[in-house]
Amino acid sequence: STDAGVSILAQTPVLGRALAGLMLGGQAVGENALTRFHAAHVTLLPAVLMLLLVAHIWVARRQQEGTTKAAVPLYPDLLISAGTTLVLLLCIFAVLAILLPVPLDVRADPSARLSDAKPGWYLLSLYSLAQWIPRPVAAIVPIALTALFALVPVLDRGQSTDPRQRALALIAGGVVIAVIASLTLVGLAL
Predict the structure, then answer these.
(1) Do 118 and 124 form a contact (C-beta atoms < 8 A)?
(2) Rounded CA gap, 165 and 158, in Å?
(3) CB 8 within 8 A of CB 135
(4) Which pTM value belongs to this model?
(5) Other C-beta atoms within 10 Å of 179: how many?
(6) What DSSP designation does 41 have?
(7) Which of 2, 77, 113, 189 falls 20 to 30 Å from 161 in CA-CA distance?
C-alpha cells in the first residue's frame, strides 16, 4: 500500500520525487518510513485537524456577526453539542471495533518489495485512475479536486441553504462521489 501510494506521488511533476523521498526517509520503505508515518499520524495530522477546526469555528462566528440571527454561545451550547457528537461517534466506533474486528495476519516485513502490491482501499480510486491515464496526471487529480473543494465556499456565494435551490452543487458533488466510488470498485478488481 505504501509502495503504491508513494510511487504515484513520486510521479507528480516538479516536487514528486522530493516529496516521496521526504516521506520515505530514503529510497525504499523501511524503518525510517514507518517512523515518519507514525509520527505524522500521531502529531501532524491531529495538529492540522485541530487548526482546521479552530479556523472553521472562527469563520462561522465571523459570518454570524453580520446577520440578524442571535449567535449561539460557544460555551456551553456549541461545546456540549460537539462533545455529545464526539462521544456518540466514539461509542459507534467502539461497537464496530468489537463486532467487526480486523484480523491480524502475518507480521509485516517492511524490507519485502512486492511487484504486484496494491494500495489500501483509500487509494484504490487513484490506483485505478493511474492505470488509464499517465501517472503524473493521476497524481495531480487529487490535488486539483482538493483545491476545487476548498474553493467551493469562495466560488459559491449563494445565500440559500435549501437543497432544492442548490441542485447544481449537489449534482456535482454526487458525480464526484460516484466517480471515486466507481474507481475504487474497479481498483478492487485490478
Answers:
(1) yes
(2) 9
(3) yes
(4) 0.55
(5) 13
(6) I
(7) 77
